[in-house]
Structures are given as structure tokens and as C-alpha cells.
Design a protein that fits this description.
With 305 residues, the chain is an alpha/beta fold. It folds into 2 domains: 5-212, Spore Coat Polysaccharide Biosynthesis Protein SpsA, Chain A; 218-304, no CATH class. The chain is 40% helix and 19% strand. The protein is built from 13 helices and 9 strands. It has helices at residues 15-26, 45-51, 72-80, 100-110, 138-146, 180-189, 211-215, 219-233, 241-253, 259-263, 273-283, 287-290, 293-304, and strands spanning 5-11, 33-39, 58-63, 85-88, 93-95, 116-125, 130-134, 163-166, 194-206. Helix 1 links the parallel strand 1 and strand 2.
Length: 305
């Protein structure tokens, strides 16, 4: 019988984390899967670890001829897959228990009209010895179903490890690092119906080594990527208050004061009038006031209206 799902693991060096993930895969009670490991590492450590698991489940290991990086290594794992469903798992994430994959498969079987399924998850802060369960609220889920572009304001789905989706011709955009996941979600959900599993099925390892953590509040990354994503979805989406609020917060948090500042970080395209209006509005407000949460939200609403 053909395997139903490919667990795609884009790997790079971190064999301690990868072992934890592979151990969690080996314990799954659902067995109709293959594992695809695409390795960006410069040595054989990942391969040697993978060799230890080839008798426990179907595992295909591929060393990339040249280092692909994030997210092209994710795409490479998807390309190598041989199944109709894709389950991306980053090497520092892992299944919460032996029934996790079974829960995803059960959701697939019970919701045949859905080709994109995601679950609640647990953030595990590696260096802080703390955890936090993350659930999507009803409002955000309803907005996701009606208008996927609202993911611009908050990635309410979570990291790719929380998702299982039907394979098609949509891949992750390798121009992105910071917005790469919800750019993919927005494009995929334009023609797909999502389904949410209200159970914590995935542990997400949070550490300083992650690309997303290294990109946070870095204007040289966030500014060009957010503008490129806005170009893709269309500046008309700024009429949605959730998208407008996302830009309000971005401009405030990165202290964007003028178009020259935007261009200095590598974006030379058009800046929509609504973005300019936010910049001009915020320039009139002392930063000490802008940074007060409830006050900032009220000012955003005034600017939007």
C-alpha cells in the first residue's frame, strides 16, 4: 500500500534536536508514512544519525549538492516526496506523543473537503525551561476561513510543523525568510479549505538558532519582505483593518519615519498612500505615547478611519 504522508525534514547540523524528532516519529502508532530528510550540512553527522533509523520506518536521506538554505531546503524535501500529503517537520520540533500523527490522519479522513489541516501546538523555550500552549481563537479562525490575507496581521496558524497539507504545485517562496510561512499559507488557502484540530499535537522548539528568531525586528529583513508580500497580495488589502493594524505596528516597532529609511533597507518599489499616511500620522505622536498598547490601538483606529 502506498504511503499516505511524507514527513519532510529539512536538516542542518543540529543532530541533538533531529534525534529527538526522529525518536518521536519512531513511536507513532500510525505507520503509513515515509520520512524525507534533505540535508544542508557540510559533514556526515546527519546521515550517520539517519542510518540508525532506517530499520524503524521508511526513511530517504538526501545530501544537497549545494547548501539550499531556508526555505529552499523545505521545498527540496517536498519535491523528493512520494505521497499525496506533506507534513513538514523542522528538526527542532517534535510530536507531542505517539498519537499525534494519527490525529492528523483522522482529521484528513473525517474532513475530505479540506486539503490544509493544522493543530494547536506547544512552544517550548529551550533556554528558559518554560512552555506555552498556543490555540487559535474563534475570531481568528473565522477570519482565516473568510480572508486568509488577515494572516498578515498575525500568524494564527503557527509554524509549518503544525500543518499537514495536500501536495500541489505551491511551494515556499525562497525570496522570504521572515514572512515565508504565512505567505505560503495565504497562497495555499486562496483555493483550499482549512480545518483546525483543537489539540496540542506538536512541540515547537524555540531557540536563538532559528531563522525567525534571528530575523525578528531586523529592518533589513522585515521591511523588504513585508513590502514584497504586500505587493503580492495587493495594496488594496490595507482597507482591511487587521492588515492596516499590522502595518501600523510594523512602522511603529521599526521606527520608520520616512520613505528614505525604507529604501535604505533595500526596498525601492512604490510605497502605498495608506503606508505614507501611517508614517505621517505616527510622526506627529511622541514615541512614549505610541508605545502604550491601548493608546496605540486607539490611534491606529483614528488613522484608519
Amino acid at each position: 500500500m502506498q504511503n499516505l504522508v511524507s514527513i519532510c525534514i529539512p536538516a542542518y547540523k543540529r543532530t541533538i534536536f533531529l534525534k529527538r524528532l526522529l525518536d518521536s516519529i519512531a513511536t507513532q502508532i500510525y505507520k503509513n508514512f515515509e520520512v524525507i530528510v534533505t540535508d544542508d550540512s557540510p559533514d556526515d553527522d546527519v546521515k550517520q544519525l539517519c542510518d540508525l533509523y532506517t530499520n524503524q520506518f521508511t526513511l530517504f536521506y538526501y545530501r544537497n549538492i549545494k547548501q539550499l538554505g531556508t526555505p529552499e531546503n523545505w521545498n527540496e524535501a517536498i519535491r523528493k516526496s512520494n505521497t499525496p500529503w506533506i507534513k513538514i517537520m523542522h528538526d527542532d520540533d517534535w510530536f507531542t506523543d505517539e498519537k499525534s500523527l494519527h490525529e492528523f490522519i483522522n482529521a484528513i479522513e473525517k474532513n475530505p473537503s479540506s486539503s490544509f489541516i493544522f493543530s494547536a501546538y506547544k512552544n517550548v523555550f529551550i533556554n528558559e525551561n518554560k512552555t506555552k500552549d498556543i490555540f487559535i481563537n474563534t475570531f481568528r479562525y473565522n477570519m482565516l476561513c473568510k480572508k486568509p490575507v488577515t494572516l498578515f496581521s498575525e500568524n494564527s496558524i503557527g509554524p509549518p510543523s503544525c500543518v499537514i497539507f495536500k501536495k500541489n504545485n505551491i511551494l515556499f517562496d525562497n525570496k522570504f525568510q521572515w514572512v515565508v510561512d504565512f505567505d505560503f499559507y495565504i497562497r495555499y488557502l486562496l483555493s483550499a479549505k482549512p480545518f483546525y484540530i483543537k489539540k496540542v499535537l506538536i512541540n515547537i522548539g524555540i531557540s536563538d538558532t532559528q531563522v525567525t528568531q534571528q530575523s525578528f525586528r531586523k529592518p533589513e529583513i522585515e521591511i523588504p519582505e513585508n513590502f514584497l508580500l504586500l505587493q503580492k497580495v495587493g495594496s488594496a488589502q490595507l482597507k482591511n483593518i487587521l492588515v492596516f493594524d499590522a502595518w501600523w505596528r510594523l512602522i511603529r516597532n521599526l521606527k520608520i519615519k520616512n520613505i528614505a529609511y525604507i529604501k535604505s533597507f533595500g526596498y525601492n518599489g512604490d510605497v502605498p498612500e495608506k503606508i505614507i499616511s501611517i508614517i505621517n500620522f505616527q510622526n506627529k505622536i511622541p514615541s512614549s505615547i505610541l508605545n502604550i498598547g491601548i493608546v496605540s490601538k486607539l490611534l491606529m483606529l483614528i488613522c484608519f478611519l
